[in-house]
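note to self — DONT lose this again. spent like an hour looking for the file last time. sequence + predicted structure for the chain T wanted, 164 res
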Amino acid sequence: MKKTIYLAGGCFWGVQAYFDQLKGVISTRVGYANGRTAFPKYEEVKSGKTGHAETVKIDYDDQEITISDLLEHYLRFVDPYSLNKQGHDEGTQYRTGIYYTDILDGVEAEAYLHEHLEPGYVIEIEKMLNFFPAEAYHQDYLKKNPGGYCHVNLNLLKPEEKKS
């Protein structure tokens, strides 16, 4: 069955590129989540005044990959103890977060982080309030610009975890 989870892990270019390669992921889309304004543009988001986080919408087949599997991958490349900073990117728009539409996913995410991390992590786990797709040039950015910067190490995926 198709399910959706939203993950914020710093710069959304690398988060999208990572999950696009993963077996069980049907599609991804980058955008801005859980902010105070409607239909924000990148320039507004990067000002820090909108409250939005750079986020990736991940549609996945829960018969092929579980939310726990997705979170295992997520924790491979985020620093869960770094507040509003991942890699060289700083600001509230680069905060880490798990945003859910199904309350059971939120409960599972909370349990997963509690079990796999030491106290003090700063990953938000919140209900998805709003999500606005980012501008077209941000979608699949690292496919279009293979030399683009992002803190996410795409080599963390094992060959058997990648789509054929």
